[in-house]
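A brief tutorial aside. Many learners find it easier to grasp structure tokens once they have seen a single protein encoded end to end. The record that follows does exactly this for LICD family protein. Read the sequence first, then the structure, and try to relate runs of similar tokens to stretches of the chain.
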Amino acid sequence: MLHMEQHWGAIRHQGYIPWDDDVDVYMPRKDYNKLLELRCELEKSDYEIIDIENKGYYLYFVKWCQRNSTLIEKPGEPSLGIYVDIFPLDYYDDKYCKPLIRYNELYRYLWLIYGYGARKHSIYSLFHIVRSGKQHFHINFTAFLDISVFKLLQLPARYLINKFQNRLMNAPKSDYFWLYSIISCESFPMSIEWFGEGKMMAFENIEVCMPNNYDAYLTRVYGDYMTPPIGKRPSHHARYFVDFQRRLTTDGILRIRLNK
């Protein structure tokens, strides 16, 4: 089923909303794990599954990527294909999940540390940064931290992230789902009854699955969901480099940008 703001888009616009122009999907943990098992079967297809097992990737959810395309949102991030973000839904039990709520800020910083350590700075890009001189001191310093301090902290951060993930996956069954997010306001219980079998609704030129009781869901998340909030109307996604026809390396992209 579609994720939060895509529900909103389907209801208000029958498609994308201006301030969130990608596609995010919810998937119960059991189905999410089945999806990950398809990784090998997809090796000769036009698509691939990207998660923390992929070198350079550092987000807490999976991306379903098109192989023959390139998208980098920010410098230093891995070269991926055009993607759909897929978020796992875990069972929510109040007593069991309280420690996770208490340490949500730690979880966020662990992912940030892991991400900074995963950012790629090739010899070519580092040479370009150094050559740029003092005017790009903050870029030089950031690159230095990434390849030194954060790289050393990456393994301990990954170990603790796995501890969090194991607790999430072993939650007792209940009548509620939740998305345990690094954004604490997104980590709230959602009645499984809201989702039901789902209902199909128009989204751009296709049909997508929505919760049976999307009104209860959207009201819980946004309140008056028919009115877009002030300050969230522009898109919040950066686009450092996009190519819809081929997959390029980060070094190849840097050369293209320098030659423009």
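Self-check: The chain has a mean pLDDT of 83. If you spotted this yourself, you are ready for the next section.
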